[in-house]
Amino acid sequence: MASITKGSAAYKKKDGTLGITQNEKSLQWLPLGASADKAVTIAIADITNLQQTPETAPKVMLKIFEKSPDAPEAVTHLFHFNSPSNPRGEANAVKDVLTNLISALKAKDASVPTANGSAPASAAMAMASAVTSKQGLVAAKWFDDNALKVDIELQQSLMKKDPSLHGTYMEALRTKPDTISNSQFNSQFWSTRTNILRAFAVETSQKKGSYNVLSAVKPRQVDGELKMNISAEQIQLIFNQHPLIKRVYDENVPKLHENEFWSRFFLSRLFKKLKGERIVETDGTDPTFDRYLDATADIGPIQRLLGLHIPNVIDLEGNQENQGGSKGGNRADFTMRQNSVAKVPIVRILNSLSEKIMANVAPSDVDPADPIGMDEETFNALALRDLQGDSEENRIMLNIKQQSQFFANEKSEVSAEAALYAKQVPAEVLSNMRFDVNPQHMNHRVGGGLDLSSAIGVIEDSDSDEEPEKKVPHVGSKSSLNDAKDQILEGVKSRRTEIIGSDAQSSLSGLSQKIFDRLTLTHATTTEFLHHFWLVFLSGDPDRAGELAKMVETLERAMDRINSVANDADAERDEIIRRHKQQIRDHFERTGKKLPLNSSAIGGGGKVVREMMEPTIKTLHKATKEYKKALTAEGIDTS
Amino acid sequence: MDRVDGTDHYEGDKQGPGPSLLVIVLDTNPHAWALLNPTLPLSKAISNLLVFINAHLASHNANQVAVVASHCHRSVWLYPRPEPPSEDVEMKDNAPALNDANKYRPFALIEDSLLTSLRELISTTTENDISTTNTTQMAGSLTLALTYINKATLLFSDSNVTSEPMSTTLEGPENTTGLQSRILVISVSGDLAHQYIPIMNTTFAAQRMRVPIDILKLAGDTVFLQQASDTTKGIYMQLRNPQGLLQYLMMAFLPDQTSRKNLVAPTQEVVDFRAACFCHRKVVDVGFVCSICLSIFCSPSEGAICLTCSTHLALGDYGSKPAVVPRKKKKKRKLNGGVGTPSSRGGTPMPNE
Ligand SMILES: [Zn+2]
Ligand SMILES: [Zn+2]
Question: What are the residue boundaries of the BSD domain, all occurrences included (chain A) (predicted)?
Answer without folding.
Answer: 142-201, 222-273
